[in-house]
């Protein structure tokens, strides 16, 4: 799963790249969401993720089965300024689009 998520988001850039935090958090969030909704299969999980809003994610709305890793990633996104949180969510959605197109 980790490899698929890394490929979908583009390998984690160098630590000195300004996008490092955004991509790292996006990878953690996407991987966590795929784990939470894995019971409906990958395509079902991807559909659910695309229907999710940033506000729902930050409120953990509909994510009752979220594990500690996903809750931790969401908490880190909640601590970000709104613009940066939106970038993380944009990276998650971009990763989903790549996976759906594959």
In short:
By secondary structure, this protein is mostly helical. 71% of the residues lie in helices and 0% in strands.
Q: Helix segment count?
A: 6
- Kindly state the percentage of residues in helix: over 70%
Query: Mind describing the biggest β-sheet?
Result: none
Overall pLDDT, averaged?
84
Number of E-state strands: 0
The radius of gyration over CA amounts to: 12 Å
Q: β content, as a range? A: under 5%
* CA-CA gap between termini: 15 Å
Low-pLDDT segments = none
- Specify the overall morphology: globular
State the secondary-structure class: mainly alpha
Query: What is the H-and-E element order?
Result: HHHHHH
Overview of the molecule:
The protein is built from six helices and no strands. α2 packs antiparallel against α5 (68-78). The chain has helices at residues 2-9, 20-36, 41-51, 54-58, 68-78, 82-101. The chain is globular, with a radius of gyration of 12 Å.
């Amino acid at each position: 799963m980790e490899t698929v998520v890394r490929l979908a988001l583009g390998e984690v850039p160098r630590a000195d790249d300004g996008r490092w935090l955004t991509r790292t958090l996006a990878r953690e969030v996407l991987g966590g969401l795929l784990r939470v909704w894995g019971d409906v299969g990958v395509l079902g999980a991807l559909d659910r993720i695309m229907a999710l809003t940033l506000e729902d994610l930050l409120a953990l709305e509909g994510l009752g089965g979220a594990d500690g890793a996903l809750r931790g990633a969401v908490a880190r996104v909640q601590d970000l300024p709104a613009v940066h949180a939106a970038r993380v969510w944009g990276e998650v959605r971009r990763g989903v689009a790549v996976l759906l197109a594959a």
